[in-house]
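Progress report, Aim 2. The chain analyzed during this reporting quarter is listed below.
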Amino acid sequence: MIRRLNHKLSILILATLLMAGCATTPPDPGLLDNARSAIAQAEAAGASEYAPLELRFARERLDSARFELERNNTAAVRRLADEAEIEAQLALARTQAALTRADLAQRQRDLEQLKTDLADLFGPEFLR
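Predicted structure tokens for the chain:
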């Protein structure tokens, strides 16, 4: 009788251990940190003005990743968080490009104004 009880107890313990081993670990909320950081960086650079579409996509993917986090879908969380980060990086790159173009245009206007001023002071032949 004791032997049979030990056997049943052993089976119960083994079954419990197997079920515990099969339980999934919920995804780490830290998986979203890089995406959040990239979105914040893009926003700070002015992506709302210069790359609103890419910024919107990044936010949407981050929201989807949060939803999947609640559903404990680790693979989807990782994929969506990565996509959100990439979209935010694209928004940042497009913003930086737009700001660089604007700066270049301003410098070209300044150069033209300087040429005009020099021509007024020293005559048009000075610039040849």
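The CA atoms of residues 63 and 80 lie 9 Å apart. The chain has a mean pLDDT of 88. These observations will guide the mutagenesis work planned for the next reporting period.
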